[in-house]
Design brief:
The complex is a heterodimer of chains A (about 260) and B (about 350).
Chain A: E1 3-7, E2 13-18, H1 21-52, H2 54-79, H3 85-90, E3 92-96, H4 104-112, H5 114-117, H6 124-131, H7 139-144, E4 146-150, H8 167-180, H9 185-196, H10 203-221, H11 231-244
Antiparallel strand pairs in A: 1-2, 2-4, 3-4
Helix pairs in contact in A: 1-2, 2-4, 9-11, 10-11
Chain B: H1 3-27, H2 34-57, H3 61-78, H4 86-103, H5 105-126, H6 133-146, H7 172-195, H8 202-228, H9 234-268, H10 275-291, H11 293-308, H12 317-337
The chains are: A alpha+beta (about 260), B mainly alpha (about 350).
């Protein structure tokens, strides 16, 4: 599962799940089915006209084929929240890189560059390009600064975290609270800082820091992580317990930077 | 804050946000009433900050994911699509586009230079400069080599001469149909020139050269025919057949090329900011640039079917050339005189 992280205007990070090549290909197949259906409908409707006025019927059919192919993707993606019929069926949609909906120019650029993506046939260029980058963007996506993501229509229920904990857990929590209270203010602050800023650390550093923190707490407070629990998760839980106690003794609470 | 209290306290707000989201997603934000809109905004901000808190402290992945999806859905709704602004689009084409065109005049001129180079190359290669047999043969070889296979048998015709392909019964239908065909064909060509920019410009450069080449080769064929047979005005026919619409069609094609070169610039040129941003910025500009070519092509399609290809009884050569001059001047007025001092991004949201 590849995530694309976005900052809201309030600087809260959240992420979209990037749509893979499989769902995009399926969506495209459905869309092509719809477009071919439109073409056939156009052909049927131009038949009666062709009896008397052949030239006009041919021209109208030709323009209809042109308009249906280009207009279908362009208008649907513009007016229907970045979704075509196929995309909606697969639960994916096109969004801007910064996480908001498409505008007309995005939709247009994306679909004009489709010319090159579909070269030399059956989307060879687009497919290869999409397979070679993390967010599976084709050339049109690069030019328009867009990407295709999954949209969750139905949110999953939240598993209650604390309520589900048994008596044993509750006992352990109070033990932790007790032990943690013996820490000095700087130490508490350091743990909280470490947890808050963990995303800014490189993986190696992050592992190293959390490991040394975990070892320190193990020896100093005689608390041990659960079996199979990572050092980071252990320290995070300690921090969660620490932060429960509120800012009774420290100054301004650390802010996420 | 305690995790259980966190969940316990906030869950009603999340439920409420979910409810509003479901309604707004199915029938659009306007279906919410005034109070609900305010409530929606507050709930969204609240949930976003909850997400922030959850990402930091809650170890349960599910809560974070739940809040994440909630925020993502609300975010897409709030920063959703802009209104459709047809008036803004028209105003952009009248006032904004000429300014955009002038800003990217160097790109246009470069595309024009490539086109001219192609035309000169095609003409020089395919015109028999010497009268001897070897030279003529070489020119003919070049012609059949450079022209696409379908066109290599092209025969110059003169004004008023009967079309050997037999286009009989030309009514108003025929002209409507033909101009529609030309329009779609030219739009495809122009947009293709734009899209090819994504190949680091290689495709666009080749495409411009190739289009110029065709024109040069055809000019050579018609001029050769006229040289051989002084009594006919093949070349004049060629010129009057091309110029009335070409005066708009060729610039439109070059605009497509200029937009492609702009896109290529976004891919190539180093900037202090990331390439992704530069490409996105110039992609948008290039689209604005190429959007102005569509109305030009509409007019050019009408001119080509109605004037340029019309037989000489309707429009003598001089009329055709006058029409060409008039539209050429109009094009210059449009691109060079309109939209000074206006914001080129006039009501940009609408475009």
């Amino acid at each position: 599962m590849i995530l694309h992280q976005v900052l809201t205007t309030e600087k809260v990070p959240f992420s979209y799940r990037v749509a893979g090549l499989g769902s995009r290909t399926l969506a495209w197949l459905i869309d092509m089915g719809v477009v071919i259906f439109l073409w056939i409908m156009g052909d049927l409707f131009s038949r009666p006209l062709a009896l008397g006025r052949e030239a006009l019927a041919d021209a109208l059919l030709l323009s209809w084929i042109f308009a249906a192919y280009w207009g279908y993707f362009l208008l649907f993606e513009w007016l229907w929240n970045g979704q075509t019929l196929g995309k909606r069926a697969l639960g994916i949609r096109v969004i801007q890189w910064k996480g908001t909906s498409l505008t007309f120019s995005h939709s247009a650029v994306r679909n004009i560059v489709r010319f090159v993506d579909s070269l030399p046939g059956l989307y060879a260029v687009g497919f290869i390009v999409a397979a070679c980058n993390r967010e599976n963007r084709r050339l049109g996506d690069f030019a328009a600064d867009t990407l295709v993501v999954h949209v969750e229509q139905r949110a999953r229920p939240i598993r209650a975290l604390i309520e589900a904990r048994g008596e044993a857990d509750r006992a352990r929590l109070s033990l932790w609270r007790q032990r943690l209270a013996s820490l000095e203010r700087e130490q508490k602050q350091t743990v909280l800082d470490l947890c808050l800023r963990r995303d800014q650390l490189r993986v190696a550093e992050r592992t190293r820091l959390f490991r040394s923190a975990a070892r320190y707490f193990e020896s100093r407070l005689e608390l041990a992580p659960d079996e199979y629990e990572s050092d980071e998760k252990f320290v995070l839980q300690l921090a969660a317990v620490l932060s429960e106690q509120g800012p009774q003794d420290d100054g301004p609470r650390p802010k996420r930077t | 804050m305690d995790l259980s209290t966190f969940l316990h306290e906030r869950r009603p707000a999340w439920r409420r946000l979910e409810e509003l989201l479901e309604r707004a997603e199915s029938s659009g934000l306007p279906c919410l009433n005034e109070d609900e809109v305010v409530e929606f905004g507050n709930l969204y901000r609240r949930t976003a900050s909850d997400l922030n808190q959850a990402q930091t402290f809650v170890s349960g992945d599910t809560t974070v994911r739940f809040l994440n999806d909630l925020v993502a859905r609300a975010y897409l709704l709030i920063y959703g699509k802009t209104k459709i602004d047809l008036r803004g689009m028209v105003m952009f084409l009248v006032w904004g586009w000429p300014a955009v065109f002038r800003r990217y005049l160097p790109h246009f001129l470069l595309a024009g230079a490539l086109f001219t180079f192609g035309a000169a190359f095609g003409f020089l290669a395919c015109f028999p400069w010497l009268k001897d047999k070897a030279s003529v043969e070489a020119a003919h070889n070049a012609q059949s080599f450079l022209l696409p296979t379908g066109m290599s048998t092209i025969q110059p015709r003169e004004e008023g001469e009967k079309d050997p392909t037999g286009e009989e019964g030309r009514g108003s239908d025929y002209y409507a149909a033909f101009s529609l065909f030309l329009f779609t064909h030219n739009v495809t060509v122009t947009l293709f020139a734009f899209a090819l920019g994504i190949t680091f410009g290689v495709g666009t450069v080749w495409f411009m050269f190739e289009n110029g080449l065709m024109l040069g080769v055809l000019a050579a064929i018609f001029l050769e025919a006229e040289m051989k047979d002084r009594g006919h005005h093949y070349f004049l026919t060629f010129v009057t057949g091309i110029v009335p619409h070409g005066v708009l069609e060729i610039p439109a094609c070059l605009i497509g090329g200029a937009a492609g070169l702009l896109l290529a610039q976004g891919m190539i040129r180093a900037r202090p900011w990331p390439r992704r941003q530069e490409l996105a910025r110039l992609g948008k500009e290039a689209f604005l640039l190429v959007s102005g070519a569509i109305p030009l092509l509409l007019v050019a399609g009408l001119l080509e079917a109605g004037v340029a290809r019309a037989p000489d009884q309707f429009f003598p050569s001089m009329v055709k050339l006058t029409v060409a001059c008039v539209f050429g001047v109009l094009f210059l007025i449009y691109t060079l005189l309109l939209g000074w001092g206006k914001n080129p991004y006039y009501r940009r949201d609408g475009t």
